[in-house]
Amino acid sequence: MRPPMNPEGYELRKTADGKGDGVFATRTFKVGELVMVGVIERRVNENHSHATQVSPFGYVQLGGLGSKANHSCDPNCGIRLNEAEAPNLIARRNILAGEENHLRLRHAQLLDRTLSQPLPL
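Request: output the structure for the sequence above.
Response:
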């Protein structure tokens, strides 16, 4: 699956701390709502600073703007694998327009399909 050419609901901006780029919501997302379609750039054999965990021992490097989603220990986005087994970003809580979309890159928050609750890895 390819990333949308004109993404709706998010954009790349400079972070407030000036340390680089981040992906920011341009509209409100409700809990459980799809924030960004996941695209895999490549699968990697081990965890590293730009890897996203998709299973107990599986890691990928995200493509598209997903690769610009920054890490947080208390992220507003989790992941739910799509039909291509790429990690979609899903709202773990309500996200307001203007908020940066964060993801927990290590030990990613895989979400239950019905409750949008983290599943144990």
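The first strand starts at residue 10 and ends at 14.
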